[in-house]
Write a structure and sequence with these properties.
Distance between the termini: 41 Å
Strand order of the largest sheet: 1-2-3
Structural class: alpha+beta
Order of helices and strands: EEEH
Strand content: 15-25%
Radius of gyration: 17 Å
Shape: flat
Largest sheet: 3 strands, antiparallel
Helix content: 10-25%
Number of helices: 1
């Protein structure tokens, strides 16, 4: 399995800007959303140059998320809203 490098500075992740952007650092995915950001996967930070690069990328990503949250008035808590099931036409009928 090839080692995945940290994202480049040109890969601009703007927190809460859209529902499509994903930033990947190693095996960790940071999925953007207009109402929430999901972080899942795993990330190994080895004691080497790649580990340092990934740690900096993670710190930068979390820093931009914190800045976005600090830059706006926030409610105490957002209610978990269940996503309604979408009915689609059966493509095999």
């Amino acid at each position: 399995m090839p080692k995945s490098a940290a994202p480049k500075a040109s890969d601009r992740f703007v927190p809460y800007a859209d529902d499509a952007a994903v930033q990947t650092i190693g095996g960790l995915a940071i999925e953007n959303g207009t109402g929430r950001i999901a972080i899942h996967g795993s990330l190994d930070l080895m004691r080497d140059a790649l580990g340092l690069e990934r740690a900096r990328a993670l710190a930068a990503a979390l820093g931009t998320i914190v800045a976005a949250l600090e830059g706006a008035p926030l409610p105490d808590r957002v209610a978990e809203a269940p996503q309604p099931a979408e009915t689609v036409k059966n493509p095999f009928a």
